[in-house]
Amino acid sequence: MSERWRIAVVSMVQPVIERLLPVLRDLGHEPAGVVTARLERTRPADLAVSNETVPQGLDLLCAADKRRVEPLLRALEPDLTICWGFPWKLPQAALDVAPLGSINLHPGLLPRHRGPVPLAWALRDGDGRFGVTWHRMDAELDTGGLLAQTTIPIDDDDVEIMQVGPKLGAAAFGLLPGVLARVAAGDPGDAQDETLATWAGHFADDDYARIDWTRPARRIHDQVRAWHLTMGLSGVVGPVAELEGERLQVTRTSLRDPGDGARRVECGDGPLWVVAAEPL
Questions:
Q1: Partner of 147 for a Cys bridge, out of 98, 134, 141, 210, CB 3.0 to 4.6 A?
Q2: DSSP character for 195?
Q3: Which of these three, 148, 168, 196, is where a domain ends?
Q4: What's the sign of the alpha-carbon dihedral 85, 1, 6, 65?
Q5: In angstroms, how far is CA 62 from the centroid of its own chain?
């Protein structure tokens, strides 16, 4: 693949842009600019895309809504669009701007865990591994042809997105040369098996918002981490527990004693340590 492409990046996540742009240059391509989204909800400062975090000399275009993405992409004149960490389902017109099409990095093993919070659902479902999928984009969400996939183990201490993200990124970058080779060949990707599709939507059920201390310690640990990786976008507060007569939102647990005053709780098959919690 010797041709040099102009590649537009569509993302809301500063660490993605920070790491992806040098990889594209190393592969012989030119980042054409970044399209991001204007949202009322403010993301954490260490994740937010801004003029200060985008490399100097690279255009940053901010879309007011999904209909504005198409004209902003046209202004960048890309050969290919790469989407990674963006909150809106893009219209087909936006996906068709680049002659080579649009591809997306999804942190799930598609067609399993389509939707906005696949990392949280990998924990909720006890998968034991996070998925990484590059796929073609179409007008639906996470349904396009598969270009490459892999998985990474879920470690017991994986809690924050800033812990998980770099490992997902490394796996995704390792797949990218092969993905771009398939794009260069006009490969539409492998069709997804709809019988295997599941939806990783925002948590909304009260049952999973409550901690049952009679369950196995690892499942409760995964429950707490799953809520953490919903990125605060759920309309339900969770996970909530009763502990020594106090009602708490549990925000961090550990399968081993971390010290520092963590509270030991006996679960269905052994102990779990509550590291952080907020009173309700």
A1: 134
A2: G
A3: 196
A4: negative
A5: 20
